[in-house]
Amino acid sequence: MTAKHLQDTTTLQGGIQMPWFGLGVFKVEEGAELVQAVKSAIKHGYRSIDTAAVYDNEKGVGQGIHEAILENNISREDLFITSKVWNADLGYESTLAAYETSLNKLGLEYLDLYLIHWPVDGKYQDAWRALETLYKEGRVKAIGVSNFQIHHIEDLMKTATIKPMVNQVELHPQLTQTELRDFCKTQGIQIEAWSPLMQGQLLDHPVLQEIAAKHNKSIAQVILRWDLQHGIVTIPKSTKEHRIIENAAIFDFELSSDDIARIDALNQNLRVGPDPDNFDF
């Protein structure tokens, strides 16, 4: 079912509700701009915030969360907060320690979702065992992976006792990840898109311009709507309040099957981020 509202959720394995739409903070530096972006998002109805240890901004994200809770009269339980363990900390004990570090920086007692950031060969199995421990102890509500290809997930499942609940990957109209999406769907793993707007590289594409004009929407809004209609959780990044509002104004229109087919056809298997199989860690 396509999300009808900014706070609509998908149900992950284990029963946790994850918002379809959230705010990403990749490469947003610590400081007032970051805190304000998080506060603006929550003020305008966002309930999901996605960060990572390697972004080096968990402290500011936490400050924004705490200030937004006070200013908007909402509770921590209303929010869905994600972070990720970095490659240097993959391992059983080191992942458990990294989780504590992230919690301390964020000033939170638990995370809603904790992800292995990249599939570093020979290391993610022990890290996954740590995530399973955190999950079984109730320290984290859901666990998952990021940037995992099909073969990484299959390899992980040889030793895992809990299946990943989410796989967050680079996904946009020029990298539609159809095979991976189909695989994850059969496994009950929710796909989540990072860099859904291809870091702005699609914002003058003629096909997208035409579809956007037809719906009287921006290209960004069309792409984010395309995500939702494909059942993809999406977390666009912005620090500007007007853009944060605009990105979320996608629940009052629907793309036709023809629109979706035309956007699907833009795929070129083109990445703006690293290839998980050829990433120099």
Question: Tally of extended strands?
Answer: 10
Structure classification: alpha/beta
Parts with pLDDT < 50 across at least 5 consecutive residues = none
Shape: globular
Q: CATH superfamily assignment of the domain at 11-202?
A: NADP-dependent oxidoreductase domain
Radius of gyration: 18 Å
Arithmetic mean pLDDT: 96
Protein name: Aldo/keto reductase
Pfam families: Aldo_ket_red (PF00248)
Active site: 55 (proton donor)
Binding site for substrate: 117
Q: What is this structure, in a nutshell?
A:
The chain is of the alpha/beta class and 281 residues long. The chain has helices at 32-43, 58-72, 92-106, 124-136, 150-156, 178-187, 206-215, 219-229, 241-247, 257-264, and strands spanning 9-11, 17-19, 23-24, 48-50, 80-85, 111-116, 140-146, 166-170, 190-194, 233-234.
Features:
15% strand; two-stranded antiparallel ribbon; 281 residues; TIM Barrel; eight-stranded parallel sheet; alpha/beta
What does this structure look like?
- The protein has helices spanning 32-43, 58-72, 92-106, 124-136, 150-156, 178-187, 206-215, 219-229, 241-247, 257-264, and strands spanning 9-11, 17-19, 23-24, 48-50, 80-85, 111-116, 140-146, 166-170, 190-194, 233-234.
- It is an alpha/beta fold.
- It has a domain at 11-202: TIM Barrel.
- The strands form two sheets. Strands 3-4-5-6-7-8-9-10 form an eight-stranded parallel sheet. A two-stranded antiparallel sheet has the order 1-2.
- Helix 1 links the parallel strand 3 and strand 4.
- The longest helix is centred in the N-terminal third of the chain and has 15 residues, at 58-72.
- It is globular.
- The termini are far apart.
- Belongs to the aldo/keto reductase family.
